[in-house]
Design brief:
The structure is a single chain. This protein is an alpha/beta fold. It has a single domain, classed as Rossmann fold (3-Layer(aba) Sandwich). The protein is 34% helix and 27% strand. The protein is built from seven helices and nine strands. Strands 5-8-7-6-9 form a five-stranded mixed β-barrel. α3 packs parallel to α6 and α4 packs across α7. It starts with 5 loop residues before the first helix and ends with a helix. It comes from Proteiniborus ethanoligenes. One of its GO terms (molecular function) is uridine phosphorylase activity. It catalyses: uridine + phosphate = alpha-D-ribose 1-phosphate + uracil. Belongs to the PNP/UDP phosphorylase family. Pfam families: PNP_UDP_1 (PF01048).
Length: 258
């Protein structure tokens, strides 16, 4: 019996799900969930080109201050985010930054604020295929530290509140009970989202870098949520987090060249 080695079969070749090949993306890739948010990132890039759009994965590649950068949407949840991360790594991506929306859990956090993850609870099934439950999901410390510093420097200019702490990565948006949310709040968890822990885990195992920054869409602690009308403060947070990430990438690239 011959068992297929997926890692060996797909490395350095055209990728099945994201429909990209080596050379299509830069070393830095922003990872929104919503495919249409890839278009928001693209407007901040010079010479941005739509490279592929297959399933939930919409990819542009362009340049920011001379640095080649890509954006690939992951869709919702860890399974599709893990596939995107694996396939992007197969074709040369080295730094993955999740950008998106997140529900805050602590009372001081407001809609439109930015949240940077310093770690993630693995309340999802995908990471269990990679590591034991007790294994932590941690972003790259060096890149995340620079992300925090850059976000602090830019917050007055862009007008957002900034927070950082441990996130919870959950699988079921509608399965989170009041008891579960209270437990996370009491543990001091900052926010709930749906992709970071798998991205952190895969990047660690592949000796690559990952980080996560999200805009606050609502607060499950205070009940401040917007589900039926346009969330204008969240839309502005998306713009702000993209600007922060792009500037962080540029600064990080400068440190590499010293």
């Amino acid at each position: 019996m011959t068992i297929l080695n997926k890692a060996e079969k797909t490395l350095g070749r055209p990728q099945y799900h994201i429909r990209l090949k080596p050379g299509d993306v830069g070393e830095y890739v922003l990872l929104p969930g919503d495919p249409m948010r890839s278009d928001i990132v693209a407007k901040y890039l010079d010479n941005a080109e739509l490279i592929a759009h297959n399933r939930e994965h919409r990819t542009f590649t362009g340049y920011y201050k001379g640095v080649k950068i890509s954006v690939t949407s992951t869709g919702m949840g860890c399974p599709s985010a893990a596939i995107a991360t694996e396939e992007l790594a197969n074709i040369g991506a080295k730094v993955f930054i999740r950008i998106g929306s997140s529900a805050a859990l602590q009372p001081e956090m407001k809609i439109g604020d930015l949240l940077i993850s310093t770690g993630a609870m693995k309340n999802e099934g995908t990471s269990r295929f990679y590591v034991p439950d007790c294994f932590p999901a941690i972003p790259d410390i060096e890149f995340t530290s620079l992300l925090i510093n850059t976000a602090n420097e830019m917050k007055d200019e862009l007008g957002y509140g900034l927070h950082y702490g441990i996130s919870a990565t959950d699988d079921a948006f509608y399965g989170e009970t009041e008891e579960w949310i209270k437990k996370l709040i009491n543990l001091g968890v900052s926010n709930v989202e749906m992709e970071a822990s798998a991205i952190f885990t895969i990047a660690h195992l592949r000796k690559l870098k990952a980080a996560c920054i999200c805009g606050v869409s609502g607060n499950l602690n205070t009940g401040e949520v917007i589900y039926e009308t346009e969330n204008t403060k969240l839309a502005q947070a998306w713009e702000s987090e993209i600007r922060v990430v792009l500037e962080t990438i540029y600064r990080y690239e400068q440190t590499k060249n010293k």
